[in-house]
Amino acid sequence: MQALAHSVRDRLIERWHDTHQYFKKKDPKRIYFLSLEFLMGRSLTNSVTNLGIQDQYADALTQLGFDYEVLAEQEGDAALGNGGLARFAACQMDSLATLDYPAWGYGLRYQYGLFRQIIVDGFQHEQPDFWLNFGNPWEIERVHVSYPVKFYGTVEEEVLNGKKCKIWIPGESVEAVAYDNPIPGYGTRNAINLRLWAAKPSDQYDMESYTTGDYINAIVNRQKAETISNVLYPDDRSYQGKELRLKQQYFFVSASLQDIMRRFKDLHRSFDEFPEKVALQINDTHPSISIAEVMRVLVDEEHLDWSKAWDIACRIFSVTIHAVQPEGLEKIPVDLLGSVLPRHLEIIYEINYRLVEELKKSFGQDYDKLSRMSIIEEGAVKSIRMANLSLACCHTVNGVSRVHLETLKTRVFKDYYELWPQKFQCKTNGVTQRRWIVVSNPSLCSIISKWLGTEAWIRNVDLISGLREYAKDPDLHTEWKNMKRVNKMRLAEYIETLTSVKVSLDAMFNVQIKRIHEYKRQLLNMLGIIHRYDCIKNMDESDKRRVVPRVCIIGGKAAPGYEVAKKIIKLCHAVADKVNNDPDVGDLLKVVFIPDYNVSVAELVIPGSDLSQHLSTAGHEASGTGCMKFLMNGCLLLATADGSAVEIAEEIGAENMFLFGAKVDEVPALREKGTTLKGSLQFARVVRMVRDGYFGFKDYFKSLCDTVEDGGDFYLLGYDFASYLEAQAAADRTFVDQEKWTQMSILSTAGSGKFSSDRTIEEYAQQSWGIEPCKCPF
Ligand code: BZD
How deeply is 314 buried, as exposed, middle or buried, from its count of CB atoms within 10 A (0-12, 13-18, 19+)? Predict the structure, then answer.
């Protein structure tokens, strides 16, 4: 595997090198994509596919006595991210390369990626993911590309050319070393760069310690420096007060900006041209300290006037928000920021002072509004609102689906929207069809190419709608069903190896794979399964013959500190134990929890699924990209009218999916009713079964049951339950009619074109970044 990877890497590096020479020669405006997380998954098959050398490699390996697929399975995932946000960043990189955009990704090279989930007695345990153990063949260490990143210290005033200015005297310096990861485009010679920074001790710092004779401390400090890029934070919802998190953010932002400015200065003299050459995309609020850093460099180091520097900053930055709730937006306590980055705190205060003066012109003395819009939050813990910093500066603020943008406009950033409506844009997410069809479902890929008579859809996914024409063609149906069955077989083998549960290929494979969150309502899924189990238990044999057999597959990680999510995982296992071993049920119902869900598991599970579930309470999922992957793979969707599902329904027709539940605008009123809103009797019964210990662990599950009953049922499981069961019943009825099901499946794939990240990237390029393709000649 290592030898194979290195051989592919050689080819990648050639293209990557040529692309950069070409970019340098042409000097186009570049997009720099700053993200604290990239969930790349495996690289081998993606690289050979995009380089167009898969057949040659497979042949060569056969001659050497190896099987390509067996070797490819050896590769571990690069899991430098939590979930949707990070995987979306990876899809965007693939599209940027394929569409020949002059782009760079910047992030952190964590030594430990997202924790590995292991299940012991049905409980989640976390284990470190030391993914670099055997080296990473896909990266190129650039020891000579390194920058010092400073922290702590004090700010002093100085007079320069008769003008007072501030200088930051830092207290600590850490070296950022570049690791380059080539990202090949498909059907193009272009390969762009994802540059990830690793923290190394600064030699300068060590020298000082050596000269003072403090050898032991010098070694200890070396290790301390490295901790900055040590570990990815699991999405724990609150990072408030976590110094290491702030240091990670600033570390990668500072190194990236030094790199970007060095590249700019190689060819340009004046920062006036900066906005013509540089677009900076902030992926969520995590890298938004970059705004203060750009101001610091331009004002303190390049000695630009404040207003000129601010004008430049406002023209280069755009931001995408991935959260729905205001609580999901990062805040940094003023004390913490002042200690780690004292000069940046001053700069943010200055930005805020000018912002508030500006706001006063529009809103006069409306102090409530001013305090809501201020970058500084006055509260028990005085904090910097990173989202407001981004809103004040960025020329574009992007939502990730139409529903989400509406939420940003009307709730989360209402005041800002009223002031600057033109900044707010919708860029519905997408996923790359290269990874999610070509790599992960080669049989589907061949079918699509055969029926369309071209492979052009791999670069131009709009063509996929051509399948609609054949949605009723019996020959296509036969090929489609065979493809699905083979994929289900692969998945069934995987399930059996992992969990020892044997599943029937005739059953409907019904899947929910995503991070475990209350709002994503895996609990609704479980309660639905319990209801189904209860019904089967109460049936006579003739009724049982009419039951559509189901395999319910669930997978996902719970953040280590998220107790409720961990209880949901345990409930999945407790229910699975009972159901899977009940002779009354047999193949009619099987429940499987797939441990350690990650990108490569998704690549196996999605093509083998019949139905996928996206159950978020309406208004809570910013977009959802999992459903797009299922859609492309011809899995039918059972979903609430939330995030991207609303737009999917528009593309494929609501009649081709199973929609249920309260609508976004109904949710607030339903919530108002609170505990007076009773779920159905069926709901009460299944919750009671869990409460009464029907699945064991009675005391342990009590608080979980409370969240949907006594706790007020914030996510409206009780309210949506009846409609959820009805949608499930509709799915059963349709599954019995395999021709109808296959037709809906084909129409799903055919209608998935809009949800390619290629479309998303074109929108960003044109509406936010103002960049043009720069195609390296072959
Ligand atoms: O971003 C997700 C949203 O929940 C999805 O609806 C959306 O489709 C994707 C892509 O836009 N958000 C995340 O994945 N968020 C995180 O992973 C995260 C990570 C660190 C801190 C906070 C959130």
Answer: middle
The answer to whether residues 254 and 42 touch, using CB atoms and an 8 Å cutoff, is no
551 lines ligand 1 (CB under 6 A): no
Phi/psi of residue 649, each to 5°? -60, -40
SS3 318: strand
Counting DSSP H helices and E strands in the chain, the numbers are 32, 24
As given in the structure block, the two tokens for residue 643 are 């995030």
How confident is the model over 150-173, as pLDDT tens digits?
Answer: 999 999 999 988 888 899 999 999
Instruction: Calculate how far, in angstroms, residue 302's C-alpha sits from the geometric centre of ligand 1.
Output: 36
Strand 376-377's sheet: what is its strand order?
331-333, 383-385, 376-377
Residue pair 388/292 in contact (Cβ under 8 Å)? The answer is no
Distance (angstroms) between ligand 1 centre and the Cα of 322 equals 5
Cα-to-centroid distance, 726 and ligand 1 (Å): 29
Q: Whose CA is nearest to atom 12 of ligand 1?
A: 85
Using pLDDT thresholds of 50, 70 and 90, give the confidence band for residue 217.
confident
Asked about 322 being catalytic, the answer comes back as yes
pTM over 0.80: yes
- Three-state DSSP at 393 gives helix
- CA distance linking residue 677 with residue 50, whole number of Å: 53
ipTM of the complex: 0.99
Ligand 1 pocket member 768 (CB < 6 A): no
Domains with residue ranges and CATH for the chain: 2-429+762-769 (3.40.50.2000), 433-659+721-755 (3.40.50.2000)
Whole-number Å distance, alpha carbon 218 to ligand 1 midpoint, is 39
Task: Give the total residue count for the chain.
Answer: 778
For a ligand 1 pocket test, name from 36, 39, 85 the mutation site with the most ligand atoms within 8 angstroms of its C-beta.
85
CA distances from 49 to 318, 497, 527, 529 (A): 32, 28, 41, 39
Give the 3-state secondary structure of residue 627: helix
b/e code 10-22 from CB counts within 10 Å (16+ = b): ebbeebbebbbeb
Residue nearest to atom 18 of ligand 1 (CA): 235
Question: Is 520 considered catalytic here?
Answer: yes
Q: What percent of the chain has pLDDT over 90?
A: 92
pLDDT tens-place string over residues 525-584 = 999 999 999 999 999 999 999 999 999 999 999 999 999 999 999 999 999 999 999 999
